[in-house]
UniProtKB/TrEMBL annotation:
Domain of life of the organism encoding this protein: Bacteria
CDD domains assigned to the protein according to its UniProt record, in alphabetical order: ASKHA_NBD_FGGY_RhaB-like
Designated name of the protein: Rhamnulokinase
GO terms classed as biological process: D-xylose metabolic process; rhamnose catabolic process
InterPro entries tied to this protein: ATPase_NBD, Carb_kinase_FGGY, FGGY_C, FGGY_Carb_Kinase, FGGY_N, Rhamnulokinase
Natural source organism: Streptomyces montanisoli
Xref: PANTHER family: SUGAR KINASE, XYLULOSE KINASE
Domain Carbohydrate kinase FGGY N-terminal: 50-227
Taxonomic lineage: Bacteria, Bacillati, Actinomycetota, Actinomycetes, Kitasatosporales
Amino acid sequence: MVGRLSAAGGLRLTEVHRFANRPVRLPDGLRWDVLGLYGDVLEGLAQAARSARVVSVGIDSWAVDYGLLDASGRLLGNPYHYRDTRTEGVADRLERVLPAKELYGITGLQHLPFNTVFQLAAEGSSPQWSLARTLLMIPDLLTYWLTGSVGAEATNASTTGLFDAREAAWSNTVLDRLGIPRGLLPPLRFPGDRAGTLRPEVAEATGLPGGTPVTAVASHDTASAVVAVPATQDGFAYVSCGTWSLAGLELGAPVIDERARAANFTNERGIDGSIRFLRNIMGLWLLTETLRTWRSQGLPSELGPLLDEAAAAEPFAALVDPDDPSFLPPGDMPARIAAYCARTGQRAPREQGAVVRCILESLALAHRATLRTAAELAGRDVRVVHLVGGGSRNELLCRLTADATGLPVVAGPTEATALGNVLVQARAYGLVGDVHEMRALVAAGEPLRRYEPSGKESAWAAAAARVGLR
Ligand code: LFR
């Protein structure tokens, strides 16, 4: 994505290269094709060089996954995908060395089986692990290849389970207790810091000017998306909705207590020391994995018509808790939804439209429960929900979320992550001011849609209770 800030202060994004991020299943696990991704990053930069005078480059990606480098900076194998099953049971094993309560007390991080801390414990005695001298999160790895500079961007570091949420520093307590060498984790850098400049070979390969700076952004995609939430007033909640739904609040300080832990809320870092107090909800993964399954079975899998069928399908016919662990790994999603229904005494949805309706209503219910809990735990009033990311294009999901939460939903921008990435770079160059100014820019420049709740609280409350949500 190329972002341009006009002299009049407008911000415009242009997509110059889009590529798939396809995991690869090897006999020893599910991996990312990180070399392929790097190749496409170079291709994207080359396209950008052709279409604009590039003053800065910034990288964000999903969180928790990492590459390990040996003493000479060589990548030790393809990074694992967080949906790989190698972390099964690991958290339970760690309980003796570092109880979950204590870990939460330091990191304030939602317990997810794939948090970096559990992935590292799963490395066990692999040969890679014994040779590893540096751990780089995915955006930091790409930054390293582009610049030769090693560092750990803080918003992404805060998703690892190795990061002290109050101190905003790597936690030596966690590292020491788990026997992770302190030196494995590079020094932190913060959004807006200069990460490095393009290596001459990269400049040559892409056509970008030598010495082009790479700026640290909020390198966790969700953190970048939250930067670009087009909120113009306090009292907002957000749902960053794509593969995952990340639903929560922006706070000035972490909420780390027993209630937040029991509700499995996370305190990840945002820009300028803010805290993203939110919960991961399984998100549109349920839908994309369903479509993928149908495609492989030769069934209709085009989203538009299926959403029309879902809109016409019977409400609340079948509901699931989207965060049921059975939905996490790749595989036949409709079969798992049917199994869930059988387990919970419901008739499984049969028509495709009914399956899609089940997924979207269930997600809306999870949005409702999560935002209610967030407001309560943080002692905040929520007056509006901003739904950003790819999911904001899904009108049915937006409407259901407004109905379920009983709050107006403002949908958009779709490319919140890219906007947040570019805005943080722009600020590093003095082109925009604080986060309020950034958000005002997004609100002024991006098409947004507003959905008012239709006031069916008792029906939604009853539906929530059916899946054990509130
Ligand atoms: C969203 C996201 C989430 C993170 C998950 C796994 O793309 O980054 O915030 O929990 O992916 O990394």
